[in-house]
Amino acid sequence: MSKLQNNQEILEIHSMLDELPTVEQIQEPLLNELVTVQDVVRFLVTTFAKHSIFVGHGTCNYWDEALEIVQAVMHLQPPCDESTLNSRLTKKEREIIAKIAALRVIDRIPTPYLTHRAFFCGKEFYVDDRVIIPRSPIAELIEAGFDPYVDRRPERVLDMCTGSACIAIATALQFDGEVEVDAVDISDEALEVANINIQGYGLENIVTPIKSDLFNDLPKGDKYDVIVANPPYVDSYDLSTMPDEFRCEPDLALGSGDDGLDCAKRILADAVDFLNEDGILIMEVGNSEEQLVELFPTVPFHFVDLKKGGTGVFILSVEQLRAYHDVFAAAANEVLNGSK
What we know:
Layout lengths: L7 H11 L4 H10 L4 H15 L10 H12 L8 H4 L5 H16 L4 H5 L2 E3 L2 E3 L13 H5 L12 E5 L5 H9 L5 E6 L2 H13 L6 E5 L12 E6 L6 H6 L20 H9 L4 E10 L4 H7 L6 E2 L9 E5 H6 L1 H12 L4
Helix pairs in contact: 2-6, 3-4, 3-6, 12-15
């Protein structure tokens, strides 16, 4: 038997370390003990770790998650400097943080839905649970002006499955408003959020929200230089095993059939009809990359080596879409006809 196995003081310490904080235990120190930004962030990190919350909706670690909550309440933009960390929080600020912290930990609501803000390409966007939270690695391509995949400045860009319109707006801003961007989504609620962001950036004459079931309701003959598609791509297994935080997001924006590729197949089949002769399709399929390659083994998908992280973003030229149209169309027809 271990020499320390029955040491009651050690057992009590272990019990205290393992005990999950209740709502009251989360909120009480925030309301009555902690004062500075650093104090509050440090406490939130500990609380997040004890409850093993999932991060991945704009942050990748507990410190950044906690800091974003505090900065949002303070109406500050990241990054945070040392003077901010040493700042004292008001009682009202701590009250708001305490409420957010409890909902974040106990109900597993992602931070952007609690603060109504998310960041994409360094820009702030309004979000709520009508849209998926911006986090696409396509941001890296936008910030590079789609270089080296386009030979000239695009005049028209289509953002398919726009959600909050973050991709559409970031593209418009990257090209200084000298590009027309159509932001397409099937969801009326998503387009309501898209409009909030479009109006917030004063881009009503540049970014146009359009309701359409993928390409179905777009004017025939419309042509684009670049189509950027970030469709739902989560397969049925991943959808059933995702952390609770993802269950707050719209189902329509996540799942896409058993293999996660129902929307992708339809986009691949129809995109060629909406691209100019030197146009390209940029599409994200995330973790369904392997299934896509297995489904279309002869197609030369160019998956982008993303320096800032992320996987499953590929590019096809209009020539390649045309060359493999028959296989894409056959797969899309199976989706539309309900075949397995």
